[in-house]
Amino acid sequence: MEKEKLLDDQEFANAFVRDRMEFSTKGPQILIQELIKKRCATSASRRSCCRLYV
Question: Could you list the residue range(s) of the whole structural domain that residue 26 is in?
Answer without folding.
Answer: 9-52
